[in-house]
Amino acid sequence: MPEHESDNEIVSVALVRPHEGHMQEVVDLLREFYEVLKGKNYSRDWLYRNAGDPGQLVNVRHWTSAEARAQAQEDPDVHRYWRRLAEIAVVERVHERLDRIL
Predict the structure, then answer these.
(1) Which end of the chain has the least Cβ crowding within 10 Å, N or C?
(2) pLDDT of the chain along its 102 residues, tens only?
(3) Helix axes 76-88, 23-39, angle to 10 degrees
(4) What are phi and psi of 24, to 5 degrees?
(5) 17 in helix, strand or coil?
(6) Distance between CA 85 and CA 67 in Å, rounded?
(7) Does the reported pTM lie above 0.85?
């Protein structure tokens, strides 16, 4: 297990499809959102583009703990970003928790 990862972390993955013409706006919003989440010690996030479907983004989130995830779900700052994201993109699928096997 990498040094920065702990047993308390929860890994989530979301597939996000920006609305036509909103790709850069979504990327910019997520960049800002990731800084907020990191600053509040809720999570670490990475954003990928699906090479087989360039219109789809893949968000990989490492929640620092179940408690941090619960706090984020109640945080009005977090809700502001989720609301804005829903206006400019569709979250096609969310895997709330991935369990490591290797």
Answers:
(1) C
(2) 444 556 789 999 999 999 999 999 999 999 999 999 999 999 999 999 999 999 999 999 999 999 999 999 999 999 999 999 999 999 999 999 999 898
(3) 170
(4) -65, -35
(5) strand
(6) 23
(7) yes
Residue 92: closest CA among 12, 14, 3: 14
For 85, the 3-state DSSP assignment is helix
Look-up of token digits 């609305």: 19
The structure tokens 């890994």 sit at: 11
Counting every residue, how long is the chain?
102
Sign of CA dihedral 56, 5, 96, 67: negative
